[in-house]
């Protein structure tokens, strides 16, 4: 640890804020090039030599506060933090007021779902006591009234069946849903089993 402290102290002492060694070095590439073009040491750059005449100086960050931090900003940041916290509090109040209105809509959603497990609140199951028979049949995959489905299948079969030619041969395109298609297949299968 003591070796680190000495090396840091040496590095801090070696910082040359005026950059004297660079200024006194006359063999720099940029300086040689500018002198060939007619620039003289001590004059500024530009058409009328209006540029800065001193070399750029770097400020050492001894306090390690970060770039752009000065004493004024160091004292004021607490006030900025307090004002930002006040703005957030105002926004939260407005958000709470807006949440108070749609409570009735949320109650309906909560009634339609039952929590499956206390520890896993992200899993919900539908509340079947509040659903109609049609919805229950859709969930469990049962047919509610088979006679109306058979009539609908026959009508849709006659209307929607279209034959078209494709590059691979004749292709039959049906404009019926997948559920109706498989219902028709099941009826045909049941008729075959009866014989």
Automatic annotation (TrEMBL):
GO CC annotation: nucleolus
Pfam families referenced in this protein's UniProt entry, alphabetically = G-patch
The protein's name in its UniProt record: G-patch domain-containing protein
Fetch the InterPro entries from UniProt: G_patch_dom, PINX1
Give the originating organism: Wuchereria bancrofti
Q: Which PROSITE patterns match?
A: G_PATCH
**According to the lineage, what is the superkingdom?**
Eukaryota
Domain G-patch, residue spans: 26-72
Q: Name one GO molecular function term.
A: telomerase inhibitor activity
